[in-house]
Design goal:
Shape: globular
Low-confidence stretches: 1-6
Number of strands: 15
Radius of gyration: 18 Å
CATH architecture: 4-Layer Sandwich
CATH superfamily: Ribonuclease Z/Hydroxyacylglutathione hydrolase-like
Strand content: 15-25%
Largest sheet: 7 strands, mixed
Strand order of the largest sheet: 1-2-3-4-5-6-7
CATH topology: Metallo-beta-lactamase, Chain A
Mean pLDDT: 91
């Protein structure tokens, strides 16, 4: 029987010290949606490991680039949502020397992920079950992120950490000043299938989000790394684009809420004004299902934004 390689991990080289590993999650519509960044100096760091279902693919991708799980020194979490951090408890059991860097608001939830898993199921429904539940992370493996802290990976590779609330109160970004590469997590939207979409889930805070975007723009990055999906040039232009899109979508959503519109109706109003969303109609059924679920979640966040 021939080996099925349809879900084989993919490796993209971003720079001599940075690779993007796609775990090719074996869930229809999610194959090219979740990835992990790997920094390689004398020490090695991963940025976001994805959900539990992504860990087998991540481990395989690491083997493809010649990195043993025990060579990983840090796992940096942009935030603790399931599609970024759901597999971290599973990962640390394989990566015996790795310590987990997370926002202080995330520590307790990693140690006891019961509430986090419950919230994920309430928000994502069946998608959360496909991602897999959280495993706990031992408290002594966790490092708390601080504004402006630096991780020196050796060989001149230094990662700067900045706190960027808005998408979530526990969000942070990673910046390598020498290369100008900024890994934005979900704080600069999602860029998949050729179009830019917001990531503004419930508990979204507009003022915090805009301040975080301004902070990222002030860093003057050259390349922008999206968790979903990949790293691209023209970072500042992309950050300004998401800033404009947030203002537009928020204005439409808030006006529609006052008129008693539903989230589904607001999506149609947004599509009438933002024609980049016409690309939704070109997606296959499974990918469209994923995007519509997450688009609905983002609109619900805009409807209740503070």
């Amino acid at each position: 029987m021939l080996e099925d390689k349809s879900h084989s991990p993919k490796v993209y080289e971003i720079s001599p010290t940075l690779k993007f590993l796609s775990s090719c999650l074996p869930i229809p519509g999610y194959e090219d949606f979740i990835g992990t960044y790997l920094f390689c100096g004398e020490k090695k760091a991963l940025v976001d490991v994805g959900p539990k279902a992504a860990i087998p693919g991540l481990l395989l991708a690491l083997s493809q680039v010649g990195v043993s799980p025990d060579e990983i020194d840090y796992i940096i979490l942009s935030h603790i949502h399931i599609d970024h951090a759901g597999g971290v408890g599973t990962a640390v059991r394989e990566m015996n020397n790795a310590r987990v860097l997370v926002h202080s608001r995330g520590r307790a939830h990693l140690i006891d992920p019961t509430a986090l898993w419950k919230s994920s199921q309430e928000t994502l429904g069946k998608a959360a079950l496909k991602y897999g539940s959280y495993d706990p992370v031992p408290g002594d493996r966790i490092i708390l992120a601080e504004e402006g802290m630096k991780l020196d990976l050796g060989q001149g590779l230094i990662l700067e950490i900045y706190l960027t609330p808005g998408h979530a109160a526990h969000h942070l970004i990673v910046f390598n000043r020498a290369s100008g590469i900024l890994l934005a997590g979900d704080s600069a939207g999602v860029y998949t299938n050729g179009f830019l979409r917001l990531t503004t889930p419930p508990q979204f805070r507009l003022d915090d989000y805009m301040a975080s975007l301004d902070k990222m723009i002030a860093l003057r990055p050259v390349k922008l790394g999206y968790a979903h999906f990949g790293c691209y040039d023209n970072a500042i232009e992309r950050l300004h684009a998401i800033r404009e899109k947030v203002f537009l979508w928020h204005k439409i959503a808030q006006s529609a809420v006052r008129e008693g519109k539903t989230a589904e109706e607001i999506i149609q109003l947004i599509r009438a004004k933002d024609k980049t969303l016409d690309r939704l109609d070109t997606l296959d059924k499974d990918t469209y299902g994923r995007e519509y679920l997450l688009l609905l979640n983002s609109v619900q966040g805009l409807m209740t934004a503070k």
